[in-house]
Amino acid sequence: MADSTNDAVPASSEYDKIIAVNINRIYKVRQHDTEELTEFQVLKNVNLTVKKEEFLVIVGPSGCGKSTFLDMVAGLAQPTSGEIYMDKKLITGPALDRGIVLQGYALFPWRSVRKNVEFGLEIKNVPKKERAEISQRFIDLVNLNGFEDRYPHELSGGMKQRVAIARALAYDPEVLLMDEPFAAVDAQTREVLQGELLRIWEKTKKTIVFVTHSIDEAIFLADRVVVMASNPGTIKDIIQIELPRPRDGIRASTEFGKLRQEIWQLLQGQHISTEELQTNENLHNEAV
Ligand SMILES: Nc1ncnc2c1ncn2[C@@H]1O[C@H](COP(=O)(O)OP(=O)(O)OP(=O)(O)O)[C@@H](O)[C@H]1O
């Protein structure tokens, strides 16, 4: 579905890419015992601006509405009230200007790596020769050179996720929407993919909205981290991540530790001391 212009576009600067205004999402849920329909508010008054070429990461407790919000930016779901604009145009449905990378890869099992990456280009009617050139460029970019003719079941989890990223990038969307894309891979592969994603982002200058449960992943990747609270889903705070880039080796720094503690406290809604933080080794990459 195409996006349409809207008279009531909110004031925005030339640096704004996506603007969400007063987003509310209410589901009607049937009670098992009485069969009555009750309202369940998932998102309440969410206002958020994503800047052009920004890497924005959203963290928050399970069920706070992160995926719901991302689905709305993708145009796959509609708010009950409120609007989301991209480049001052109201988002009313999905379009190729927004690429989506989900947890669990969602590759086409009957298509080879090359054919998966070419999918969006086929929809855009890009001629065959050009398609082959573009797909090869993105296969190389995600370090899958030599695997072009493999099928998804012949790849590791990390490789499948690389294909999903290459597929989303190949048709050149302006915005990349990523919903826990690395949740299904092992910790080591996850760090490799995070590094690769940053390298690709710096090279391609996309605007990225990325959802994760991992505080470390959020800090490592983001320009800003949006911390959400649940019941109903609201934005609790937005933390600017001013760590220098490139960020290789940054996880061990004091600044990184401070940010980890700050976000952890926000998510817990309570104060915990540095000592407590350090004694909990699992906290590093723990799901929130
Ligand atoms: N179609 C639906 N009908 C009713 N409730 C729904 C529906 N879809 C989602 N929800 C509810 O909305 C809430 C938010 O879901 P959402 O998947 O956006 O949360 P999330 O923050 O992404 O969670 P997680 O981190 O666990 O993936 C959840 O409580 C979920 O049960």
UniProtKB/TrEMBL annotation:
Q: Which PROSITE patterns match?
A: ABC_TRANSPORTER_1, ABC_TRANSPORTER_2
Q: Which InterPro entries match?
A: AAA+_ATPase, ABC_transporter-like_ATP-bd, ABC_transporter-like_CS, ABC_transporter_ATP-bind, P-loop_NTPase
Question: Per its UniProt entry, what is the enzyme's top EC class, as one word?
Answer: translocase
Q: Identify the SUPFAM superfamilies for this entry.
A: P-loop containing nucleoside triphosphate hydrolases
EC id: 7.6.2.9
A single GO molecular-function term is: ATP hydrolysis activity
Q: Is ATP-binding one of the keywords UniProt gives this record?
A: yes
The UniProt entry, under CDD domains, shows: ABC_NrtD_SsuB_transporters
Q: Where is the ABC transporter domain?
A: 21-255
What start and end residues bound the annotated signal peptide? none
> Which Pfam families did the record assign?
ABC_tran (PF00005)
Asked if the record carries the keyword Signal, the reply is no
Gene3D superfamilies the record matches = P-loop containing nucleotide triphosphate hydrolases
Q: Which domain of life is it from?
A: Bacteria
The alphabetical list of record keywords is: ATP-binding, Nucleotide-binding, Transport
PANTHER family for the chain: ALIPHATIC SULFONATES IMPORT ATP-BINDING PROTEIN SSUB (PTHR42788:SF13), TAURINE IMPORT ATP-BINDING PROTEIN-RELATED (PTHR42788)
Name the UniProt record assigns to this protein:
ABC-type quaternary amine transporter
Please name the source species.
Pectinatus cerevisiiphilus
